[in-house]
Amino acid sequence: MKKEILQVLQNVSPIQLEEHALERPAYAHLGDFALPCFQFAKVLRKSPAIIAEEIAASIKHPSIRKAEAVNGYVNIFLDRTRITSEILHAVVEQGATYGSSNEGKDGVVTIDLSSPNIAKPFSMGHLRSTVIGNSIALLMEKSGFKAVKINYIGDWGTQFGKLLTAYRKWGTEEDVRKAPIETLLTLYIRFHEEAEQDPSLNDEGRAAFKALEDGDADALALWKWFKEESLSEFQRIYDLLGVEFDSYNGEAYYNDKMEPVVQELEEKRLLVESDGAQVVDLGEAIPPCLIRKSDGATLYATRDLTAAMDRKNTYDFVKSIYVVGNEQSLHFTQVKQVLNKMGYAWSDDMHHVPFGLILQDGKKMSTRKGKIVLLEQVLTEAIDLAHRNIAEKNPTLANQKEVAEAVGVGAILFSDLKQHRKHDIEFNLETMLQVEGETGPYIQYTNARAHSVLRKAGEVSAFVVNEVNDFEWETIKLLEQFPQAVKRATEELDPSVIAKYAVDLAQAFNSFYGNVKVLTDAAHLSYRAALIQSVSIVLTESMRLLGMKAPEEM
Ligand code: ARG
Q1: Co-location of 389 and 324 in the same domain
Q2: Does residue 122's CB lie within 6 angstroms of at least one atom of ligand 1?
Q3: Model confidence over 58-72: pLDDT tens digits?
Q4: ipTM, 2 decimals?
Q5: Is the model's pTM score more than 0.80?
Q6: Residue minimizing CA distance to atom 4 of ligand 1
């Protein structure tokens, strides 16, 4: 709409107009758009008031009801009934596909997300990566890309040698079966404590990892078992969040695929020696990228290089995204630059999508020693709290358990996604679950309210728009902006655009519903039912794009 109006103005403007030249006035009596003319006065050698009058007089367009010159501004009033009718018919007809596009032309986007480490707790950082990455995937699909979600499991590295050693010394099968991650973490911590007294343990750990790398059957069987146990614990979290993956190829998958890559680096004369290790030099500004340690072991970066090349070969991506915390920025810069030096122009299509920490009382929520916050507990607690709220407010609701799950999980998702991902976010279950304010439950509740009105109003039938009041118009203008919000969120890889949009739409709808007597005004009922249905369609779709469920009753 804004673009269209800008074009209309451009046709009658003596001067080139930038998109930001067109403002959206804060008050309805000043119109839907306003063009300030002060900037033109100098060039045209006329007063802003006269310029505004001239522009206002020459505007003619079916979507514009009138253009007024006031104090050097051209205030533009849109034809509300015409536009409202267009938008509502479009939304009702298109349903969930409203706002979809084929901008991506089926290009593949690989998304590296979640990627927890086995035998370690699923951290708050992994939660953020899962939630943000999943939403980005949904946005990509909505915009016509093919999203491939890759869970790059951290299942390889020298720490597994230590874990094997610790298990053989102090572990029991029974304990691991009972509480896999907790037990394995305790063993790992004990290894470090005991190794401080007895450094020979470290040699044992190294030897155990070497055996694992060389395919020793016993080591491999233990490692596999630890991995399966860990993955099935993670799966419970993924089920709660409703997230699925297209690939679980993690670090171990690349164990036997790195040699050719190291060789290629060598052939391209990119490897140099530094203290016995082999590195790629990246100039003054960034530290060199470590490829192989002096004992011959490969590293995290070696595996990511190999994985990046494998993804290009397998998927021929147009974009390759890594949703990983801020603290790994240097790592991804290094990997990208090494690929660039190898001559791969597609390294420009790799994007690290960083995010901040989750804080509790201003401090990082830690998964280290003693202070483990088990994510599953947090999720369960949110669901329990939601359940208690529902039981109190709507005791007769049929599927309480299901709704509580949608609300509890939705609260966590929304509080994560409503701020720009780069910010640290404060974790507070009580605030997240409130139904007032900018929360997930607020959006869900608003949508459920829309459904309840629709149930009372009956099916949406054919409708005609005769007049549009200010409350309705505010809502319509937001509905019109949804495709634009999807586009921006996709381009900027930023789900918070959709979360903020959903808050605006919910607020506009609630103020409409609070001020307009919908059900008792038969003359406008079918048009308003179409409006309410459209709001519900777009809110539901917004929530889907954030990974949230949208209960129809709560
Ligand atoms: N497993 C890593 C961690 O927990 C994250 C992996 C991110 N993805 C990647 N391709 N490096 O820190």
Answers
A1: no
A2: no
A3: 999 999 999 999 999
A4: 0.99
A5: yes
A6: 116
